[in-house]
Amino acid sequence: MKTIKDALVIAWINGWIAATRGWVWVVASSVSPAAFLVLLAIYGGVEGLKWGLVGGFIWTIASNGISLIGDATYYRLGIKYQSMLTAAPVSPAGYALGLALSSFIFALPTLAVYLVAMYLLGVPFLSLETVYALTALWLASAGIGFTLSGFIKHMRYAWALPQILSAVFTIGAPVYYPADLLPSPYLAVLLPTGAAAVVVQHFTGLRAYDLELVAVAALALALQSLVGLYFLFKLARWRQP
C-alpha cells in the first residue's frame, strides 16, 4: 500500500505538475507518432489513417516507458533527486513506478486524441484484449527503460539511447505494418511492441492473424512484462552511481 502511495505522490509531482507547467513536453512527445500518422493518411487514405492511429498509440505507450532511461538517469546523475529519495522512506518500487506513471501522464492528452479519432473512424480499439496488451507493453517497456538507466554513467548517453531504442522498437517491429510482411510473423513477438501490435491489430480488425500467432503474442507479452517488472524492482540501481 505504501509503495502505491509513494508512486502516486512521485507521479503527481514529477508528472502532473511538470506536465501542466511544461506543456511543450506534452506536445513534443506526440510529434513523432503524429508525423507517421500524417504520412500514412496521405498515402493510405482512411485505411492508412487507422493504421497510423493504432500504431501511434502503441508507439506512444512504448516510447514513454523507454524514455525513463533519460529521466531516471537525469535524476540519478544530474540533480541527485534519486539520492534524496534514497535517504527518505521511499521504496525502490515506489520510486520506479512513480517515474513510470509520471511519463505516462505526459502521454495522456495524445492518447485521448487518438482514442477519439479511432472512435470516429469506427475502430473498436478498447477491449479486454487490447487493454491487456497495452498494459503489458507499458510494464515491459518501463522495466527496460528504468533498468538500462542504471547502467548509464554519463548524461550525454541518457537522451540518445531512448531515441535509438524507440526507433528499433517501433520500426523494427510491425507496429505500423502487418506482422505477416516479415519473413515469419512469429518474429514479431520477439519485441514487446511487435507482440502488442499483433494482439491489437487482430482485435481491432486491422489484420486477421492466425489464432495461434495471437496466442503466442499474448503469452510473449506476459513473459516480457514479468521480466520487465523483475528488472524494475530487483535489478535497477537504487544507490549512488
From TrEMBL:
InterPro entries: Nod_factor_ABC_transporter. This is ABC transporter permease. The keyword Coiled coil does not apply. Signal peptide: none annotated. The chain crosses the membrane at residues 23-45, 51-74, 95-119, 131-152, 159-179, 213-233. Keywords: Membrane, Transmembrane, Transmembrane helix. The lineage of its organism: Archaea, Thermoproteota, Thermoprotei, Thermoproteales, Thermoproteaceae. The keyword Protease does not apply.
